[in-house]
Amino acid sequence: MFAGHGEFDNIVPVALGQRAVDTLKAHGQPVSWHTYPMMHAVCIEEIQAIGQWLRSVLKDQASLAQIEELLGVEPPVNE
Length: 79
What we know:
Layout: E1 2-6, H1 14-26, E2 32-36, H2 44-58, H3 64-71
Parallel strand pairs: 1-2
Helix pairs in contact: 2-3
């Protein structure tokens, strides 16, 4: 599971997100926990981290091209 949270979230306190992660881990669930310097939002760094996490999780189940298509990511252009 990927879990991301804004460090300055004014809707859901970051401590509550951390507590949820701790509970999941205590029950044997692997969690990739990330915080970002933002409020209750999504940032490009989080989207990129989710993409990397998905690639690592799905690498044995789908080709990179299939994952990028699912994510709507354009393949990198070699310069």
